[in-house]
């Protein structure tokens, strides 16, 4: 009975329309999600292969929050061009968010196995949540950057600093994508 309920929830979740702000799956994580979803033991509920955003520094989500979003490598010129388009007196921050994956697991043993495999492949911030008879795993890498970048319509950092940020962000992307590939091989 429990297996039937799990498989029905999996079918229901995977047939739903994508409600993410991006509107579709990140190309870098699709194969990993497909591999996870092909197993009777698991299904993904959300995923992000990592992203860079330039955004208003505010607590609540809403329209106009994001000024720039990239799920791929960035370059200095594109970042500078996007910063020059921002017309705001508010504090604006640069943020690189880590790769994250939420996976529903059929059993506690399945959840434990997935967390161990994730940690072996560098997903250091990974753990599980048991809610009644449901087991959810959250897998996170650790590659992050966040700092204020603009206020009063002026950039707070010079071009050299921005160049270093672009270099670091791109290295972080490469590390995250390698971890995605390594986990895909281990599952």
The CATH homologous superfamily is termed tRNA wybutosine-synthesizing-like
Describe the strand arrangement of the main beta sheet, using strand numbers. Answer: 3-2-4-8-9
Number of beta-strand segments? 9
Q: What is the CATH domain class? A: Alpha Beta
Distance between the termini: 26 Å
Give the uncertain stretches in residue-range form: none
Number of domains: 1
Mean pLDDT, to the nearest integer, reads: 92
Apparent shape = elongated
Structural class: alpha+beta
- Provide the helix percentage: 25-40%
- Count of DSSP helices? 5
Q: What summary fits the major beta sheet? A: 5 strands, antiparallel
Structure description:
With 187 residues, this protein is an alpha+beta fold. It has one domain: tRNA wybutosine-synthesizing-like (SSo0622-like fold), CATH 3.30.1960. The protein contains 5 helices and 9 strands; from the N terminus they run ααβββαββαββββα. The protein has a 5-stranded antiparallel beta sheet with strand order 3-2-4-8-9, with helices on one face. A 4-stranded antiparallel beta sheet has the order 1-5-7-6, sandwiched between helices. A hairpin with a 2-residue loop joins strand 8 and strand 9. The chain is elongated, with a radius of gyration of 19 Å. The chain starts with a helix and ends with a helix. The mean pLDDT is 92.
């Amino acid at each position: 009975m429990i297996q039937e309920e799990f498989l029905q929830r999996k079918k229901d979740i995977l047939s739903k329309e994508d409600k993410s702000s991006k509107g579709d799956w990140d190309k870098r994580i699709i194969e990993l999600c497909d591999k996870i979803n092909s197993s009777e033991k698991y299904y993904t509920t959300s995923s992000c292969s990592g992203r860079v955003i330039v955004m208003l520094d505010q607590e609540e989500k809403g329209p106009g929050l994001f000024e720039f979003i990239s799920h791929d490598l960035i370059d200095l010129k594109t970042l500078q061009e996007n910063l020059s388009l921002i017309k705001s007196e508010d504090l604006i921050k640069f943020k690189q968010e880590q790769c994250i994956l939420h996976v529903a697991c059929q059993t506690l043993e399945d959840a434990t196995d997935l967390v161990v495999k994730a940690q072996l492949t560098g997903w250091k911030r990974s753990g599980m949540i048991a809610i009644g008879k449901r087991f959810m795993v959250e897998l996170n890498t650790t590659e992050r950057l966040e700092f204020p970048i603009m206020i009063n319509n002026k950039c707070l950092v010079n071009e050299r600093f921005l160049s270093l940020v672009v270099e670091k962000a791109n290295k972080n992307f490469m590390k995250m994508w390698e971890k995605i590939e390594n986990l895909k091989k281990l599952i």
